Amino acid sequence: MITMLAMALLIASLATVPARGRPAQVADLYAAAREVSPWWNASAISGEYVSAGAFLGMAGLVLAYGADMLWLPIGAAAGHVVLLASVTAPLRRSGAYTLSDFAEWRLGSRRVRRVVSACVLVIGWFYLLPQFQGAGVTLSVISGLPVWMGWLVVVAAVVVLVLPGGVRSITGVQAVQFWLKLMAVTIPALVFIAVWRLQNDADAARPPYFHRDTTVTADTAAGIHLPAPVAVAVTGVLDGRRHHGERLRLVAGRHRVRAGTRMRFPAGAPVPHTSRIALLRGDRWATPFAGGREHPLAATYSVLLATILGTMGLPQITVRFYTNSCGRTARRTAGLVVLMLAVFSLFPALFGTLGRVYTPELLMTGETDATLLLLPHRMVPGVTGDLLTALIATGAFAAFTSTSCGVVVAVSGSIAQGLGGGARGFRTAVLVAVAVPLLVAPWACSPQSAALVTVAFVVAASSLCPLLILGVWWRRLTPPAATAGIVAGGVPAAAAGLARVLSDPGPGSGWLGTLVEQPAIVTVPLAFVVTVTVSLLTSGQVPERTERAMARMHLPEGPEPGGPD
């Protein structure tokens, strides 16, 4: 396994060799000198977008919550359509290197720039955290090493790949790694389908049960609910009594286990569930809006709003369109990204469904991110399972590395530009960008990387999205309004995200719990309303250069694709 990981990192390193032939300039660090082709750039964006949440987390969420979770990849693809239609070409024509540059160029305000830079930092750090979490889970599953070593592997890889040349040095990495990740899910998927068909196993529609004798260790004290009586071998404390491996006949209903208690369930036993994940019957698991969440319709609308509008507010995605030679190639790039992500999104539903059959104990432990990593040995034990696990682990680390590289470049760009820019400032900012999420990772309670990624989407949709939409299309936007909108939407979204990351077992119940878990349905409209209202109240502060800026963003470009905008 370690050999395969080393090979993946070697591939990533070799992809950057052509970019190291000359010293990194500012145009290389932030925009790759605007020389990236649409196909190469689309591959890089897709590689950056397929993060820990998409590669591992989506399969785990489908395993736990069923059809409802398919709205996440739908929202991601739709978000790029909105991005393509609304801001890619105008943003590219602005000539800015980062979102902070765009804010200052459009509104002529250093204060707005500082607020946007702070927002970019928060979004980037929220996005990096699940990459570290996913790397820790992957390394722990394939090798048994401590989770924190996975965090360090990703940090080391990112620093090595980003420091030489910023965007120029990571573009090849992310493009190559997207196709590596696609191969790492396509080949196992074909094998899994063949095995499943040969076994003629139609158990995905019934409540999850253990296919073989399975030992589950409780990571925290929790209540479990048994849907039917079962004989279990228990080592530890169950229902207030200590046991030493004896077999007990447990009645259906609720039981209490202490952290560290091991329970061995026999083959055929139904899978208990905890307060973390509600166990769903096959019909409810396969039906949208019938999942085990409160207010599922409102939560789904909130998720769609966050993913569709949050895509254009993700700094590591938006900054990519500055690397195209013109607005026409930027639009072509966005269109290719939609196709590439649509192909990749075919696989999480398959892996989640098979995980419900072959890795049902993850519903009890809550470690659903391990679904894809455990499937090979459950379905095809032996050498074939080893090879498939190695391939999946390689793709997983490619996902963590490529996404983390893009986020670190975007965050470092905002930090460095605030300090005056330059290659030296950028490289110092890289170290700062990876340090904060590395320090927060031990305190994060949510084990699901996809759930953590949505926090970054919510903050982006609630803060930077209104600035981009109104900044590109509305002449009456004012600097005080931009600041007020970012604060009004971004602060509550970030506070809800922090509560979600640090709370255990979750944000609570009822409408308050739903809004803490998925606040976009409130924070996004609030940000737009505040921005428009304050703009109307401060109409005398519209920047003088607004007409010139709008003309630059929207006038047709020259006939030559490589010509000036």
TrEMBL record:
* Family to which the UniProt record says this protein belongs: Belongs to the sodium:solute symporter (SSF) (TC 2.A.21) family.
Protein origin, superkingdom: Bacteria
Q: Where are the transmembrane segments?
A: 70-91, 112-128, 148-167, 179-198, 298-322, 334-354, 387-413, 425-444, 450-474, 481-499, 519-538
Q: Which PANTHER family match?
A: CATION_ACETATE SYMPORTER ACTP, SODIUM/PROLINE SYMPORTER-RELATED
Task: Give the UniProt subcellular location, in the record's own words.
Answer: Cell membrane
Q: Which InterPro entries match?
A: Na/Glc_symporter_sf, Na/solute_symporter, Sodium:Solute_Symporter
Q: How does it sit in the membrane?
A: Multi-pass membrane protein
Record keywords: Transmembrane included?
A: yes
What name does this protein carry?
A: Cation acetate symporter
The entry's keywords: Cell membrane, Membrane, Symport, Transmembrane, Transmembrane helix, Transport
Task: Give the matching CDD domains.
Answer: SLC5sbd_u4
* Record's signal peptide: none
